[in-house]
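All the exercises in this workshop are built on plain-text protein records. Sequence and backbone structure share a record, each on its own labelled line. The structure tokens are whole numbers drawn from a learned vocabulary of backbone shapes. The record below serves as our worked example for the rest of this section.
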Amino acid sequence: MKDTAMYEHLLGIKTPWSVKRMDLSMADQRVTVEVVLKKGQIWADPTNDRARAHINGWREREWRRLDTCQFENIIKARVPQLKYSDGTVEELTMPWAERYARVSTLMETFVLKLLEACQNTKKVCSLTRLPWHTVNAILVKGMERGHSYASILTDLDRSRVLDVVPCRKLESATELLHTLSPEQRLGVKAVAMDMWPAFMGAARNCLPQADVMHDRFHVSKYLNDAVNAVNTVRRREHRTLLKAGSSPLTGSKYAWMKTYADGRSSEAVSFRPLNQLNPKTSRGWRIKESFSQFWFYRQTAAARRYFKSWGNHAMRSKLEPVKKVVKMLRRHEQGLLNYSVHRITNACVEGFNSAIQLIKANARGFRNFTNYRARILFHCGKLEMGLG
């Protein structure tokens, strides 16, 4: 059996797709499998029974799959963009992954099982060699499929959970804030949250006097996602440099996701030559890193000037993923500027999320939300039991 035929069986590749070739990189511990589409394929047009979909273009895509022995397994293919009679363009769904996913369906299932078993995202990242944002995205998708959301109200001063309600809709967030008495709501000076519209709307309605600010850790996630999207360009640059002889970008995928606070560390020193190459990925990384200076400003006027300067520079980068994040941050500028006044974050909430997941796992589920809420408040609410 040929290697290509063997991988077709291993990966479950069926007509009209076939494995063209495999590339083995001992240095990167990676096997890249290139999959191609048979010519002359015809697709139906869901908007018109009498018409066919036309190929509007092609997009280079890569997916991380379950490892082969100790080697990372990457599937690479050119995916057709289908244009329908009504003018809409849609990417063809691949048999091994969901549309727009970056990992295969089997890899998603494996990651979810690991998360359920060890309840620690960092450990799962280490076991699978996937970046944190990818594992977190799989977790969120899994929750959207078969789990329900809960909204948590926390007291940042005392680091405790005040209350929990199901869902994260406007009504749920409003109900959550109304668990506070009118006097307590009037005493709230600032509230930290992500950019979820329902939370922002509830805060405006129930806490009109409070300053709303957006958590710096969520902003960092958006910027990291943008750099990761630019990594598609890095892979293209990497292939171009390899054709010319050698590429210094080999094995640098996760280096662009890090922050090098200590410029003298061995990691920072080894990363410096990559950063000086000035490819598009380097530009995106520098823009992400430069925004961290924004959080040090303690005067709103100075923070506003820096934000404006940073935004203008980022918009000139010609990096679409970065520009998209900049536009989003500009829409929430006041929520970012309020950090210069109140200096609060939702860092403790991440700890609560881990504790709540552990509570849920240890209980093997709850019959109803009331029992779930009671257990969360018991363990995370710092309740005064009056036991003497």
Summary: The radius of gyration is 24 Å.
